[in-house]
Each structure stands twice: as C-alpha cells, then as structure tokens.
Here is the input.
Amino acid sequence: MREKRGVDERFPPLSTSIESLLRDGSDTAFRSLVYGLIRLGEMIVRHRDIYGAYIGVTGPQYQMMAMIAVAPNATAGEIAKTMSVSNQFVVSETGKLVARNILEKTTNRADRRSMLLNLTHKGRDLLRELGPLRRQSNDLMYRSLTGNRAGVLQEIVDALIADAEIALHELDGPHRRGQKAPTASSDDGGWKGARRSVRTHVKGRSRRALAK
Here is the structure.
C-alpha cells in the first residue's frame, strides 16, 4: 500500500524554518532546546508547588502571595497578566486567601471596579517562614547564573515571552480555532459515526422493547 505524502517529503518535518536554528538542515538541536525549556518549566512549577505546600497553600496561591509581597496594592488584573491566567482565576484564588486571613483587599480609589490586594500579618509570617527553604532551593537551582548571565537570561526570557504571546495569539485566532489535521478529523468522523450507530441501535432496541 502506497504511503500518503504531504507537501514536505522530510520526516519528521522540520519544526522551524529559521535558518539560525538549523544545523546542516536539521532541527535536532532546536528540538533539544525546546525539550530542555519544557523540562525546566516543569521543575520550576514543582518547586513553586512545594513552596506552596510548605505554607499550606497551592502553588498558584503562593505565587500570588510572592508577587504581592514585592509589589503591594496589586490588582487582580496585574497578577493575571504576569501569570498569564484569567482575572476570574486570580479573583477566585485570592478570595480563598482573603477568607483564610492571608490576604486583605481594599477598594481601589483610582478605579472602584477593582480591589487592591495586600498581605496580612499572617501572610507575611508565612513568607518569612518559607524564606530559608526557598533561599536554599534557589541557591542550588540557579547557582550557574554567575556574573552577567542572569541579566542575559532575563533579556532572552523577556523576548521569548513576547514572541510566545504573538505566536499563541496566531494559533488561537478565530481563523484557526477548531481546526484539526485531516487524519485526526477523519478519525473523529469515524468515532462520531460509530457513536451515532450505537445510539441508533440502542434506540431501536428500546422501541422494540416498548412495543412488546
């Protein structure tokens, strides 16, 4: 049986066409970089969740507390933008922290539609108690960022985040939403057809049973 072929005969197809990211026409090194970033991101999230568990909150809740500690009088919108989550999620999670007397909120006089978030005495105590553990962990995790490497990495991360937002906007645009690869779409069609067939068969049996 002859194998179907797309426009690109190469397999696996290249994951980027940026020349500087290819070596001798191969994207292997680039893929290794992406996988490394994914692995690093997962480990950072695991660290965050462990910090949260240590002070009795979730990972995202800890992150919100840490952000508010650095920038008091934060709004849900500001936190949501930094974390790349919805305002509703931040409002829900900070509301839980307010209920536990970890955060307090006051009306934003500059914009009464929003609230200003700050740590309570309990919230500050929790972060102080986390301090030694977090320092020890970060000292080990980021010990290779000596000299100006941290500043260089910050510039690279900022640029990657900006480009990632543009790429996500394009991927999730109305013109792409709901699209699937042809093979995946045909599989879905077969599955939907099978489900319709099962439902028709069950309904037919039910009607016959009622007629008896």
In short: Residues 182-211 form the longest helix (30 residues). The chain is about 65% helix and 5% strand. Residues 19-143 form a domain with the Arc Repressor Mutant, subunit A fold (CATH 1.10.10.10). The helical segments are 28-54, 59-70, 76-83, 87-99, 121-141, 149-171, 182-211.
